[in-house]
Amino acid sequence: MTKNSGSRPAKPCSGPLKGLTETLRAMERDGLVTRAVHDENPPRVEYALTPLGRTLVPLIDAARIWSEEHLPTLLRARETYEP
Questions:
Q1: CB–CB of 64/41 below 8 Å?
Q2: Which end of the chain has fewer CB within 10 Å, C or N?
């Protein structure tokens, strides 16, 4: 059972949030984000990039720029694709 910083057990995530939670926990394990649990009702968790995580920002920005430039072409290819 996962616990927050207080004495109440944290509620496990289900549905679409489960995948997000698993991804954030993996990023925390890999040193890309930090996780802060606030003992509030309802419980609140904040994530922040670490210095290592911030090194990914230029790569993410490059992917964003690429997608802005190429998304129309990609969508046209998707529409005309015949398996």
A1: no
A2: C
State how far the Cα of 75 lies from the Cα of 69, in Å rounded to an integer.
12
Whole-number Å distance between alpha carbons of 72 and 69:
8
Q: Is 8 helix (H, G, I), strand (E, B) or coil?
A: coil
Segments making up each domain of the chain, as ranges: 16-80
AA letter at 77: A
pLDDT for 61: 98
What confidence tens digit (pLDDT) does each residue in 52-78 have? 999 999 999 999 999 999 999 999 999
| CATH, domain range 16-80 | 1.10.10.10
Model confidence, pTM: 0.67
